[in-house]
Amino acid sequence: MTSPRYKRVLLKVSGEALMGNGSYGLDGTTVNAIAEDVASVTRLGIQVSLVIGGGNIFRGVSGAAAGMDRAQADGMGMLATVINALAMQNALEKAGVPVRVQSAIPMAALCEPFIRRRAERHMEKGRVVIFAAGTGNPFFTTDTAAALRAAEMGCDALLKGTQVDGVYSADPRRDPSAKRYETLTYLDMLARDLAVMDAAAISLARENKLPIIVFNIHEPGAFTAVMKGEGKFTTVH
Ligand code: UDP
Questions:
Q1: How many C-beta neighbours within 10 Å does residue 106 have?
Q2: Predicted ipTM?
Q3: Is there a domain that residue 2 lies in?
Q4: Number of separate domains in the chain
Q5: Which positions in this protein are listed as binding UMP (predicted)?
Q6: Can you give the pLDDT of all 237 residues of the chain as single tens digits?
Q7: Domain span at residue 111?
Q8: Does 12 count as an annotated binding residue?
Q9: In testing the pocket of ligand 1, which one of 84, 142, 152, 162 has its CB within 8 Å of the most ligand atoms?
Q10: Residue 1 lies in a domain
Q11: 59 annotated ligand-binding residue
Q12: 15 assigned to a ligand binding site
């Protein structure tokens, strides 16, 4: 077996990616399909960590738009990410993968608190670590949490699973002439304001020379394919 090009990665999955065809919450079939893909990446010998968003349940900005205090609403958004993390933990365990959830907001009865060295040890032992509750701070996103944890854990790449197979010049679902980029620089992403990741996440990745790989999480086995250098994706570096 040739050695994989990646030793340790972090996959960011948005909450919306877990809804399936629904418009809210979790779709079991979709969660299981992503878990199977993650399981197959671990079988390649790659250490995998995950950050899952919460947009399928609650987003702080929506709460704020409806008149809530933003910091309070963001607290609810972070709790939503814990619900998703527990659902993914369950699906991964069913797929035969050992998992630990670590939350940025301690919740001892449900999961471990985030402890970097402990997470490191879990990953060395082949456990998938799911980082829940974002950064633990309001006014941030789970994209930023993903870039932060990937940098802290010394990951070789930050994978962003989206609804399309890479970064396009325009929304390919609306504009048939949209062009997919094979590679982009961090500055291209920032300057063109391409709506793939927020600027804080891109800046953090740039400062830490962490490549971002954007691919379609809904394509069966896409994460595994990308890890083998196959399939379609955009690399930002
Ligand atoms: N959130 C937060 N701090 C963080 C990460 C997330 O306050 O570090 C809150 C915020 O309200 C956000 C919600 O959690 O709207 C869900 O995260 P996000 O919108 O990033 O989820 P996604 O769009 O990836 O599903």
A1: 13
A2: 0.99
A3: no
A4: 1
A5: 54, 74, 135-142
A6: 555 689 999 999 999 999 999 999 999 999 999 999 999 999 999 999 999 999 999 999 999 999 999 999 999 999 999 999 999 999 999 999 999 999 999 999 999 999 999 999 999 999 999 999 999 999 999 999 999 999 999 999 999 999 899 999 888 889 999 999 999 999 999 988 777 899 999 999 999 999 999 999 999 999 999 999 999 999 999
A7: 8-236
A8: yes
A9: 142
A10: no
A11: yes
A12: yes
